[in-house]
């Protein structure tokens, strides 16, 4: 088959395509390119604006200093503890647990249908450098003895975390998650699975209808429905004002986002009764990775609010995670409710269910 991959038409077999998908998701395959349409005006008829008081924003890499604005005072007082004798696993580079191979391959399908949208941060570029040019505490891509330095051009950084109410299996929500990856934004996600008791009612209260995604930007007081309007708002406020071509095709964008989810249909959709965490979890991830996707499905089903630290290719936050853990690999979960920090998607899923799901 022939596919459009990272801005280039590539001839490959299905097995080769799956290998390319896994490589991209494991953050070890450098390709680049975004084509953008000219700037369009944000349709006001489908937006819900609470306030318009602008705040100054910084261009630093990680300037957010304030956490989620959701009131957790009504959260359950149940003590959150990890499973007995739990020990975080050692990270295994390029390894997929045999019982998760089918899930990972299915979760990689959007990579094909969405033309790798969300793999690269806006303004991504790379250069081949000498290994000596990279400080030992800095992340760099190495392929067959070649050292590759990756950079990007980021827009203004929000001082407070943007908040998005959504669920994993919604194609409209996926479009917004893709632009979050491209703009390298850290976002607090409030999962809204079907029958979820916490955040669906909150969206109805705030916006007046049950529709997703729903975005709240505490930096400006702006809140809105409609995925295309949210994308336009985010690129105008925190990007270069240009929406990537793959997110500018209207119905075709939504169709391809939906087709990419067929292999995981129903996952990340319906609420599983769970303990409500006193504090949001923290997940280092990005939209395209199938390993991150299967973890996000469980976070949504358990209705666990989480801060997603976006780290697509070119993100400066890859260096931060590298300095924190000694290497870069996603997903990486930090649970402030138990003190657990861990790699490995399969084990993260088991940990989440054992810790939060009500038996």
Automatic annotation (TrEMBL):
Annotated spans, Disordered: 58-85
Residues covered by the GST N-terminal domain: 160-242, 279-359
InterPro entries: GLR_AS (IPR011767), Glutathione_S-Trfase (IPR040079), Glutathione_S-Trfase_N (IPR004045), Thioredoxin-like_sf (IPR036249)
Gene3D superfamilies: Glutaredoxin (3.40.30.10)
GO cellular component terms listed in the entry, alphabetical order: chloroplast
Biased composition (Polar residues): 64-79
Domain of life: Eukaryota
A Pfam family the protein falls into: GST_N_3
PANTHER family on file: THIOREDOXIN FAMILY PROTEIN
Name listed for the protein in its UniProt record: GST N-terminal domain-containing protein
Organism: Vigna angularis var. angularis
Gene: Vigan.08G292700
